[in-house]
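To close the section, here is one more complete example, presented without commentary so you can practise reading it yourself. The ligand is zinc ion.
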Amino acid sequence: MLRKCPICELNYIRENETMCRTCAAERMRRYAPKVEDEIIMCSECGENPALPGHDLCEDCLKEQKRQANLEILADKVRADEADDPLEEDITEDASEDD
Ligand SMILES: [Zn+2]
Ligand SMILES: [Zn+2]
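Output:
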């Protein structure tokens, strides 16, 4: 007992089936959840995939952290220098002995 698929009306289906294999596959494909496989590349080097939640890859994130640390360090040094400016060591000339 075969009848035509009500959807495509091309393929024959069994009495207990609602659609042909082709239409079933098509429907599966259409309603299947989209797989989020879009890989965002690192905005810095553009060669490695960015880490989730970041727009940089692991390497560039590390580099960025390193740079940030250097900046902090440099700021500290600058602040220290500003706090107590280097006083010139005026070594008195002790050779002028009377
Ligand atoms: Zn069909
Ligand atoms: Zn990168």
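Once you have examined the tokens, check your reading against these statements. The chain has two domains: 2-31, 35-84. Residues 42, 44-45, 48, 56-57, 59-60 surround zinc ion (ligand 2) (CB under 6 Å).
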